[in-house]
From TrEMBL:
This is Acetyltransferase. SUPFAM superfamilies: Trimeric LpxA-like enzymes. PANTHER family: ACETYLTRANSFERASE C18B11.09C-RELATED, SIALIC ACID SYNTHASE-RELATED. It comes from Candidatus Magasanikbacteria bacterium RIFCSPHIGHO2_02_FULL_47_14. GO terms for molecular function: O-acyltransferase activity. GO terms for cellular component: cytosol. InterPro entries: Hexapep (IPR001451), Hexapep_transf_CS (IPR018357), Hexapeptide_acetyltransf (IPR051159), Trimer_LpxA-like_sf (IPR011004).
Length: 166
């Protein structure tokens, strides 16, 4: 029985090491492709990126698996930002103010300031800015700018309350 335990621990250690090596390789790939990927920032698992040269990420930011970054225009992501699994940050779309036959593609930049946390499945629409230290609840759709130090939830995302960090 003791041999199984040692065998089990050995393989767990090997798999943990391989997973870390894969994460390091993935992060270096995006460091080469993004406009900027700051110091100590990391990308975990598979993410889907369109036009990576338009993406600028600050220091110590974490982008989790399943995230979609559609950067037809610039995406600015600050430092110490957490982007949870399944988030979509989109800078492009169609101008819905016109009839379908004449709709044109639009591209507006997105800005996510320092310390923001996007919960799982958050969708950020083109032209939106999210203020410093804001938390956006899981499944929210951000259609308008959000102020700093706030908690926003819902579809469309609305500020539920201000956050104080004392």
């Amino acid at each position: 029985m003791k041999d199984v335990s040692i065998f089990h621990r050995f393989f767990l250690l090997i798999f943990k090491w391989l997973r870390g090596l894969h994460k390091l390789g993935t992060t270096w790939k995006w460091r080469c492709l993004f406009g900027n990927l700051g110091r100590l920032s990391s990308v975990s698992g598979n993410i889907y990126v369109y036009h990576p040269h338009h993406i600028f990420v600050g220091d110590a930011t974490r982008i989790n698996h399943g995230v979609v970054l559609n950067a037809m225009a610039d995406i600015y992501i600050g430092s110490r930002v957490r982007i949870s699994p399944g988030c979509i940050i989109n800078t492009g779309g169609l101008d819905y103010e016109h009839p379908a036959s004449v709709r044109k593609h639009i591209a507006l930049p997105v800005r996510i300031d320092d310390g923001v946390w996007l919960g799982s499945g958050v969708i950020v629409n083109p032209g939106v800015s999210i203020g410093k230290n804001t938390v956006v609840g899981a499944g929210a759709v951000v259609t308008k700018d959000l102020p700093p130090d706030s908690l926003a939830v819902g579809v469309p995302a609305r500020v539920l309350r201000e956050l104080s960090y004392d």
